[in-house]
TrEMBL record:
Lineage: Eukaryota, Fungi, Dikarya, Basidiomycota, Agaricomycotina
Protein name (record): Major facilitator superfamily (MFS) profile domain-containing protein
UniProt entry tagged with the keyword Lipid metabolism: no
Annotated segments matching region Disordered: 1-42, 68-115, 536-570
Superkingdom to which the source organism belongs: Eukaryota
Domain Major facilitator superfamily (MFS) profile: 149-530
Length: 570
């Protein structure tokens, strides 16, 4: 019987038999080839297109059959999902049936190579290399036991870290009166400047590490170093010793801050601003408690015992974070360093970083100089000693309410309003010094409220314009760059206060100007977008009647030409 007769009888043709024999002779591959081979769907499409173009093939609804042959000698034969990474194309002149040895009809080609790779292998190492591990986790749970335990742990971590950072004004008074009384106020301010710089400067490293490996190592290492740094401060006597001890505490803060704020984005999306606001409230509440606690401890105990008590309290509060502050997304291999350049193509992120740098130049200057501001406005010593606590009371309520306000009115709206409020408060209450004591208290609380809301929403504003997987990296880069101006602002403010005999007028102008300029830079992309939309709408409104007129003239001319043609034909 000829091949043509075989085809008419319904049997396979000679070409089909050859193709089937070719399909059975699949070359074996080594284990390394079997593990590393990935299928590129885009490479399959041209082959399919070329196969359809052959003249000796009949074009049917099922022109190509995709075979995934199991490995003849897999590394783990018992694994049901272990496939041999080899594609075989078989030309068909009819739809496949079960008699052809197929359990199921060929599924449609996947829409992406990642989807096909997941079908071919379940190897977790390959999934981590391809960044596929987070695909199956699902959306953030928006609550639950693990999520709220994570929020509570992050709350107490920031309570210990930033409570101690913002209370430096209280420590500075003690240093100038005891261990460092031979040093000037600006020289002692360098201790706080170095500590703040290191707290934010290392965030780019910790943020990148958090995105790749999670929070556990950073939390364990950061909390341990933080407690040891406070213990070291208890035994310091010389200027350089205080510099080193506070620098060590700043390093611990850089390890803790980024994961403590970025991890919230793994558990919350719709209520992210509220969750971040709760976390950052820890530093605001600590700012109220730490100054009062230190004042009482310094009055009743010596410096060493007081600092050891603070170290023990920090250890107890941060220890639960070892177990409950954890990332939800699975770990993955670190992205290449060139990925750090990607966010800078986003104009919104670039202006956010630049504006935040300008704001952060003097963000902590009022906190470091609050006692000086209070005494310059003739407040009683009993109130001046708690000037930092007054600032932190306002900061606590600003942090607590900012998340709710952001979820109601929009993250960026509240974010910009808060920094404008900082500038207005400084110009209204601090530049006009001396002012009545009641007004000075209102100024302290008002600045604390506005500044607390702003620093709380930095993370939420970054998350609003960032992919979830890049959130930690972007936030880390932002805090690292904002740490550089913090080396300048407090020192300049200290020099201005000293040159004016302890008043805050020139320093207040400097602080308020940087805040308002930073706000303008932050919203610059939005301003450009509004101007562009207004100009385009005005252009459309002006060109609309003109286009209608032109269209009407064209219709008249068209009718005239049609009439001429019809007349000529007649």
């Amino acid at each position: 019987m000829s091949s043509a007769d075989a085809e008419k009888a319904g049997g396979p043709s000679t070409a089909e038999k050859a193709d089937q024999q070719d399909g059975m002779n699949v070359p074996e591959e080594s284990d390394s080839d079997r593990k590393d081979a990935l299928v590129d769907v885009e490479a399959v499409a041209p082959v399919a297109s070329e196969s359809r173009s052959h003249s000796h093939l009949n074009v049917d609804p099922f022109p190509i059959q995709l075979h995934l042959s199991r490995s003849l000698s897999p590394s783990n034969p018992q694994h049901p999902q272990h496939y041999h990474h080899h594609l075989h194309l078989q030309h068909l002149h009819r739809p496949p049936t079960r008699s052809d040895g197929l359990d199921n009809f060929p599924p449609p080609l996947p829409s992406s190579s990642n989807e096909l790779a997941r079908r071919l292998t379940r190897d977790p190492d390959i999934q981590r290399q391809m960044g596929l591990g987070d695909e199956d986790v699902g959306p953030p749970p928006e609550g639950g036991r693990e999520a709220w335990l994570c929020v509570a742990s992050a709350f107490f971590v920031l309570f210990c870290v930033f409570g101690f950072v913002t209370v430096f004004g209280q420590l500075k008074i003690y240093y100038l009166a005891h261990q460092l009384k031979e040093y000037s106020e600006s020289e002692v301010s360098w201790i706080a400047t170095v500590q703040t710089f290191l707290t934010f400067g290392g965030s780019i490293v910790s943020g990148r590490y958090f995105d790749s490996h999670g929070a556990r190592t950073l939390i364990v290492g950061g909390t341990t170093i933080s407690v040891l740094a406070v213990v070291a401060m208890a035994f310091c006597k010389e200027y350089y010793q205080f510099i080193l001890a506070h620098a060590l505490f700043g390093i611990s803060g850089s390890l803790l801050y980024s994961p403590s704020t970025a991890v919230v984005g793994h558990w919350f999306m719709k209520r992210r601003s509220t969750a971040v606001g709760i976390v950052v409230c820890g530093s605001g509440l600590a700012g109220v408690i730490y100054p009062i606690a230190l004042k009482r401890l310094f009055d009743e105990l010596n410096f060493r015992d007081a600092m050891l008590i603070i170290a023990g309290m920090n250890a107890v509060l941060m220890f639960p974070a070892w177990f409950f502050l954890k990332a939800r997304l699975p770990p993955r291999s670190p992205p290449p360093l060139k990925s750090l350049l990607g966010p800078w193509k986003d104009a919104r992120y670039m202006c956010l970083v630049l504006g935040s740098c300008i704001v952060m130049m003097n963000f902590f200057s009022p906190y470091f100089n609050a006692p000086t501001l209070a005494s310059g406005n003739h407040l009683s010593p009993s109130i001046s000693n708690y000037a930092i606590a007054l600032l932190q009371v306002g900061s606590f309520f600003g942090r607590a309410s900012s998340g709710i306000l952001a979820d109601t009115f929009g993250v960026w709206n509240v974010f910009i309003t808060s920094i404008v409020g900082c500038s207005v408060t400084v110009f209204a209450f601090w530049v006009a010094s001396p002012i009545p004591p009641a007004a000075a208290v209102v100024g302290l609380v008002s600045y604390g409220f506005a500044s607390g809301a702003w620093i709380t929403l930095v993370a939420a504003s970054t998350g609003a314009i960032s992919p979830t997987r890049e959130f930690g990296m972007r936030l880390g880069m932002l805090w690292s760059l904002t740490s550089i101006p913090t080396l300048i602002g407090p020192v300049i403010c200290g020099l201005l206060i000293t040159s004016e005999g302890g008043t805050f007028k020139s320093a207040g102008i400097f602080v308020g100007a940087t805040h308002i300029f930073g706000a303008v830079i932050t919203i610059l992309p939005r301003i450009i977008e509004i101007i562009a939309s207004l100009s385009s709408s005005s252009h459309r409104s002006s060109s609309g009647p003109r286009q209608e007129k032109t269209k009407g003239q064209g219709q008249v001319q068209g009718r005239g030409r049609d009439e001429e043609i019809s007349d000529s034909r007649a």
